[in-house]
Structure formats: C-alpha cells, structure tokens
Amino acid sequence: MNTNTTWTDFLIAEGATIESAGIRFDTPDAGLAPPATVAVPLVHLGMIRSRGEDSAPFLHNLFSNDVKNLSADGAQWNSFNSPKGRMLASILLWKEADGHALVMSADLQPALLKKLSMYVLRSKVKLADGAAETALVGISGSDAAQVLARTGLAVPTTAMTQAAAGDTRCIRLDDNNFLVALPVAEAPGAFGALLAAGATKAGTAAWQLAMIRAGVPLITVPTQEEFVAQMLNYEIIGGVSFQKGCYPGQEIVARTQYLGKLKKRMYHVRVADGAAPLPGADVFAPEFGNQSAGKLVNVAPSPAGGFEALAVMQTSCAESGDVHLGSLVGPRLSFLELPYALP
Length: 343
Fold this sequence. Notes:
The protein is α+β, with helices and mostly antiparallel strands. The protein has two domains: 5-214, 2-Layer Sandwich (Gyrase A, domain 2); 263-337, Aminomethyltransferase beta-barrel domains (Elongation Factor Tu (Ef-tu), domain 3), CATH 2.40.30.110. The protein is built from eight helices and 19 strands. The longest helix is centred in the middle third of the chain and has 11 residues, at 204-214. The protein is globular and about 55 Å long. The relative contact order is 0.15. InterPro entries: GcvT/YgfZ_C (IPR029043), TrmE/GcvT-like (IPR027266), YgfZ/GCV_T_CS (IPR017703), YgfZ/GcvT (IPR045179). This is Folate-binding protein. It comes from Aromatoleum bremense. Keywords: Transit peptide.
C-alpha cells in the first residue's frame, strides 16, 4: 500500500482508517449510494516513474501496448506479462515531459520495480518509486467532470487522455471516472477543494466498485500469472497492440488472438450473500464438477447488498448461468452488464 506519511497523516486526520487493503472513512462510503460523485484517495495503488530519453522504447519492448506512439496527452492500459503470456501486472501508463508514469496495484509495486530494473542494462532510463512525491486521487460519478472543473483543474474531454496544469495531471478513464496525480504537498488542499466542489470523500471500496462496473481489472498478488490478457478483456479496453513488435509473452497473446478459441472471459457478477469474497477465489459450475471453472479478480460491496465482482470463467459456464462461488453448493453468481460487448 502507498504509505506516504504526509498524505496518510492528513487522511487520518480527516477520519480515515488505513488498512493493508486500502482506506475507509468513518462515514459510509458515498460511492455505494449513486449517483453521488466521490473523491477516493487511491492508497491501494502504487506508482513507478520511468525517466530518460530511452523511456518510450524501453517500456515499449516490455509492455503489451504501443508506448512509442502514445501521444503527449495520451494514457493507456498496459500489461506486463510472464514469458508464458500470463499477466504479472495491469498498468495505467501516461506520458510525462521527461518519461512516463506507471500505476499498478500497490502490493505488486516493489517487486515490479525490482523486476523492471533488471531490464534497464544500458538503456538511458531511470526507474523510481513515485509514491514519495505523488499522490493519487480517484474521482467517480455522473458529475465528476463538473466537480473537477469547479476546482479549477484542467479536465480532458476524451477517454484515455490527460490534461496537465503545472505538476498536476488529470487522466480521464471514461465518462464518469478520473484519476488525478499531484504533488504530495498539494494533495490535502486539492482533496479539500474537491469536497468543497461537491464530491464526497469515500474509501477504496467505492473506487473498486467503479472500476468493476467499468469492466477494468486490477491484477493483485492473489491473481498474478492467472490470466492471459484477453481473458481479462484487455484487448477490448485498449490494453493490447497487435501491430507492435515483441515483448514478454507476446507470442502467446498473439496466438490467443489469431489462432485459438478463447475459452475464458471476464464477466461482471454479483454475489448476493455470504462473507466478503476474496480476489483469487475459485468459482464452480456443474459441467466442470469439482474442478475450478474460473476465479474472481476484484470484489467490492454492492449498494444492492452482497458484493459485485469481476470474474474470469469458462465462457460455456457463463452462458449456462449456473455458476457458484467456492464450491458447487456455494452462493450462486448472478450476471450483470459490462459497459462493452464481448466478442
């Protein structure tokens, strides 16, 4: 977890409890009562900065997307894969004046920074932990853009683009979800300004629910090396380029796209009852008996009760609709809509 003390001390003074899995406030998460717009300190995310003249080709040769041709105001989803094509990390990447910023799950950040550093060799690139100097805040809701504008921030008008004002960047993920990256020293004032502009402070669960409903997965330690990119619908959300050159796992990802029938996909599901499920939990279906038919990726409390989740599973099981959590007699999953169509 991102634990910059300047930022976290402020949040604790604001009534936050910071836990290993993220942050919660003493008041109920407003994100569970739409259509409120929420401001969420994204302490469950980590950051790596890549700086230097070789930053673009260096990252381009390691990640699934076309980093070289990313525009100055662009942002993109990326994956870093094992040689077997399994995702080691899901990454939000954007361009900066002297390189690039990479955002991933905080529980993966230390190991990922170490692993990426092993590839630097003679490249003119310096990699560093970005959390010491940058705070991340998520803004989610139907009037998120208006709330941001009322604070005086530059607001991008197109999905997966960014707007910069000084050292503060606002990245638009889609119509309702934005990520703001800003210097730690400015974060308390900016957070207060967002609340004054109409946002409600909310914890990690509110952002996780927003991303689940957006169909955007976050790889964490329990789900590392479980999925090929297409199982997570990553090519649908723009996280894979099939025109670029080689990168770790590229052959498997390309083969999955062009030669094989993909047997697993990610779905938006609801678990109506039971204890809070954990990422990585297995799901089961009668046609597979006691063999796992898939896994949960991300989970958040649902305003309708129970929990909503992203779950990767055999497409045949999803089509049958008879899928259960934990065992064949576990809670039955109901299927909810994703904001995009599956092939």
